[in-house]
Design goal:
6 domains, 53% helix, Beta Polymerase, domain 2, alpha+beta, Four Helix Bundle (Hemerythrin (Met), subunit A), Hydrophobic Seed Protein, four-stranded mixed beta sheet
């Protein structure tokens, strides 16, 4: 072991300070603090991080040795101080665990108890965070036999103080000849890794990845080394080259990737001042800066740094797959392998894995680079690709050039993959993992590892894209038919299902290139269709889907679906049932693949409603749109039939309905109209506000809770109501505000609980909500305090200036206020208060929360129930909303059009 330089640890000065003071604690702390400062300064100077973590371990060795010497251990004593785990490897990050084993030759610990306790107390007093165990050699054997973690830690051990022969005895007792033979150890480590990956959704691409534990992280590299060490004995990364597990170029890539992650981890520890391995939003910009990513624009800096991170961990994951496949073949296969079974002249199957028939397959027949993935999809019983064949694939990626991409054999094979009954997503993911997909489709290569710095898109663009295709495939699973009933039905009815997979592959491919990604992606999709000789109709459908993949979700979430004109316009846009079916299935998959929290029950209900109403319009014929009067008549007729059968006097119904206005019957179903009407007629006029609640649908995975309020109209009704609901911890997803001619308000809110679920059949919760709303609305002058909940940690990093657009509706006498702002607790209540201060009435509202931002649309009128006509008033309203909601004090003004 090389000596530490004096700047890092000056032994003479340390000994002098020990001699001068009665307590050693000050001298130890000073030495530790000095070493921290020196190493951190060297890190900021971009010194070799490998040397830094090794120097920190060597320094810690010296400190522990000095501490150990202060206690009585006879030269013949059967006791030793060992470094184990990561520290045992001689690697130590700023706040990594210092794992120690005090190893005894016998089970008798009493003779050392006082010294051991004094030693550990000293370590605590000088500020070292150590994890320690005290065991005899025999106890090490017992513990290691029973615990995978213990045997793993003991495999990586060094003697810091005491006789080396104790460690050698321990190594002998715990050797693979006595416990955890390499096969059992490998299987246990494989299961451990799979469980760990599952904690991170089996993806390298998380918004806040763990550089140690996430797929492709440092733990994956270490797992490789643990397995190799158990099987071959002492082994390091470079030694795996000699064993044939790695090529020299692969070793260089793995080593450089490890160094990059070490830099990230070192920076995280240094910034957090603790053992922090999560690359949180709190640290991403600062880590990027420490690693030399200085773009000026913080968002761009983070995105560039994180793309580098994702590409590094993807490279590690790829090599990890390759090496683990080697382990499968080397460790698990005992005796002679079974004879190979030919698939064709280029490929054969051995022990369930596909392999080439000879080493020159890809060089002689380059189309085999695509063919292998098609064969795996056509033979889902195959477990994977042999290690040598994976390496050959990697080595021959250079053959994928423009000529390769135009070759009819390759284009035909690629399309054939999307027509397979099984394995489409699995093999596209393999193609991406092995670096084939991004070479065959250079436009896909641009989005590999590309992140978007927001909470809405929780995966990189390539991971989201493949996740979308996975969701499309999952719609065919019988067990998901209840959660996605319509999508599951439609996916089997699409005339050419391969087209929706291709549209999914291209829907976001234009991101990161500036401009409208839907337009850019549509151009790429058209070029793809032409290059792959698809029929004109097929190409046209793919292009249309890519260009318009956001339209259906935008319409469902931002438009009034009770308005016949909205439905007619959307029906005219999609044009026919086939386009509607494809678009619905793609949209549902896209929402679920973007962020699993987005697909809540209310969003599902909106999507189904838009699909169903549009299908009716198409069946009726675009030339025969339902007029407002006809829809009102149909709704009233069905509701009246229900009421009369229930014993309600039709004259009472007609009298009430004459006061409600047309919009009420347009915005509610016949069932809701009957429910409301019956309750209103039975509600005494002096009984205060009427508050009704029910689920919007009986479907388990769709809908929300409808809250209907009938009460004398008050100008502050909306503001008071949303403030009260905020206090009840309810999220409002839709608001329909109406006033009858008798000056009664008929307000309907669709709400979910704060975590996204519906209230459901919970009598106690329903009673609490109803009573709280009644009490609040009975005393509107006692305006509820707008809640001041703590802003969640992640949301704090997305403090952009709100955007407000104000314009008058072309078809209805209302003014539309569109708001995009950072999501914050109580935001809707604050907006309601602003409208109240401006003497505005809210007639309708569409509420959408997308990750870290809200996109809300309000339809308002002035005190005279007219749209706003004063540009100066609109400008003040806009600026007030921005100022009240903005995290910055001087946001730039946004667009207004009257």
């Amino acid at each position: 072991m090389s000596l530490l330089d004096a700047e890092l640890f000056d032994r003479g000065q340390f000994q002098a300070e020990l001699a001068l003071k009665s307590s050693p604690i000050g001298a130890f702390k000073k030495a530790i603090r000095r070493a921290h400062e020196v190493l951190d300064a060297r890190f900021r100077e971009n010194r070799d991080v490998r040397r830094l973590v090794e120097d920190r371990a060597r320094f810690t060795d010296q400190i522990l040795l000095e501490a150990w010497k202060r206690f009585s251990w006879s030269s013949e004593a059967e006791i030793a101080l060992l470094a184990v785990g990561g520290y045992g490897r001689g690697e130590l990050h700023p706040y990594s665990d210092i794992d120690l084993l005090i190893l005894l030759g016998s089970d008798d610990q009493e003779i050392f108890r006082e010294s051991i306790e004094g030693f550990l107390t000293l370590l605590w007093d000088i500020g070292l965070e150590v994890g320690q165990s005290v065991r005899s050699v025999a106890e090490c054997g017992e513990e290691a036999h029973a615990d995978l973690t213990v045997i793993t830690n003991l495999m990586e051990s060094r003697t810091i103080a005491g006789p080396e022969h104790l460690r050698e005895r321990m190594q002998e007792v715990t050797a693979s000849a006595h416990m955890w033979p390499s096969k059992a150890f490998y299987l246990a480590k494989r299961d451990e890794q799979r469980a760990r990956h599952a904690k991170y959704n089996d993806t390298e691409y998380n918004l806040e990845p763990n550089v140690k534990g996430s797929p492709g992280g440092l733990r994956d590299i270490q797992t490789i080394l643990w397995v190799a060490r158990r099987h071959f004995g002492t082994l390091n990364l470079h030694a795996m080259v000699g064993q044939g597990f790695l090529l020299e170029s692969e070793y260089a890539l793995l080593a450089s990737s490890q160094e990059f992650l070490w830099k990230v981890r070192y920076a995280l520890h240094m910034l957090a001042g603790r053992a922090e391995d999560r690359l949180l939003f709190d640290h991403q910009s600062k880590v990027a800066e420490l690693l030399g990513y200085n773009e000026g624009d913080t968002k761009h800096t983070i995105e560039r740094f994180m793309q580098k991170y994702y590409r590094v961990v993807m490279a590690i994951a790829e090599l990890s797959d390759l090496i683990n496949q080697h382990f499968e073949e080397e460790i698990l296969r005992t005796g002679d392998s079974s004879p190979a079974k030919p698939l064709n002249s280029r490929f054969q199957v051995r022990d369930g894995y596909i392999e080439v028939t000879h080493a020159n397959v890809f060089k002689r027949t380059p189309f085999a680079i695509i063919e292998i993935f098609v064969l795996m999809a056509q033979h889902p019983e195959l477990s994977g690709v042999c290690a040598d064949t994976i390496r050959l694939l990697r080595d021959h990626r250079y053959l994928i050039d423009d000529e390769f991409r135009r070759d009819i054999r390759n284009t035909s094979l690629f399309i054939e993959l999307f027509k397979c009954e099984q394995g489409i997503h699995r093999n596209l993911r393999r193609m991406n993992r092995y670096g084939i997909l991004g070479r065959y489709l250079p436009e896909f290569g641009h989005i590999v590892g590309q992140m978007q710095h927001d909470l809405f898109h929780i995966y990189t663009v390539d991971a989201h894209t493949l996740n979308l295709i996975k969701h499309l495939r999952k719609f065919k699973w019988p067990e998901l038919a209840e959660k996605f009933p319509l999508a599951s039905k439609l996916i089997d009815e699409l005339p050419k299902p391969e087209l929706i997979y291709l549209a999914g592959l291209y829907h976001d491919i234009g991101k990161g290139r500036g401009g409208d990604h839907s337009e850019i992606g549509a151009l790429d999709a058209e070029a793809f269709g032409n290059r792959h000789h698809l029929p004109a109709w097929d190409t046209g459908l793919i292009v249309w889907l890519v260009q318009n993949h956001l339209v259906m979700s935008t319409t469902a979430q931002r438009k009034d679906l009770s308005d016949p004109q909205v439905i007619n316009d959307f029906a005219a846009f999609v044009g026919d049932q086939t386009h509607l079916d494809y678009l619905y299935v793609l949209t549902v998959a896209d929402i679920n693949a973007t962020n699993p929290t987005l697909w809540n029950s209310w969003r599902a209900s909106l999507m189904r409603q838009l699909y169903t109403e549009t299908k009716r319009a198409l069946q009726r014929g675009l030339e025969n749109p339902v007029e407002r009067e006809e829809q009102i008549r149909l709704t009233q007729s069905a509701a009246l039939d229900t009421l009369v059968r229930g014993g309600t006097d039709p004259d009472d119904v007609e009298q009430l309905w004459s006061q409600l206005g047309d919009d009420y019957f347009l915005r509610h179903t016949a069932n809701d109209v009957a429910w409301h009407t019956d309750a209103i007629l039975q509600h005494p006029s002096d009984a205060g506000p009427l508050v009704l609640m029910k689920e919007t649908t009986q479907r388990e995975f769709e809908g929300g809770t409808q809250i209907f309020i009938y009460a004398p109209d008050q100008h502050d009704f909306f503001a008071v109501t949303v403030a009260a609901m905020a206090q009840l911890n309810l999220n409002i997803h839709d608001a329909r505000i109406l006033t009858s001619t008798s000056q009664f308000t008929l307000d309907t809110y669709i709400v979910l609980e704060a975590e996204g679920g519906s209230i459901g059949d919970n009598p106690q919760r329903i009673k609490q909500i109803r009573q709280s709303l009644i009490d609040t609305l009975m005393h509107p002058d006692e305006y509820p305090n707008i809640i001041q909940r703590r802003v969640p940690r992640q949301l704090k990093h997305f403090a952009f200036a709100p955007q407000v657009t104000i314009h008058n509706d072309a078809q209805r006498p209302v003014t539309v206020v569109e708001l995009t702002a950072p999501d914050r607790p109580g935001l809707l209540a604050k907006v309601g208060r602003i409208f109240l201060d401006f003497d505005l009435s809210v007639q309708n509202a569409k509420i959408a929360t997308l990750g870290e931002r809200v996109e809300d649309v309000f339809f308002v009128t002035d005190a005279n129930n007219q749209p706003l006509s004063d540009p100066e008033l609109c400008a003040r309203l806009q600026q007030t909303i921005i100022t009240k909601l903005s995290a910055s004090s001087s946001p730039s003004p946004q667009q207004i059009s009257i």
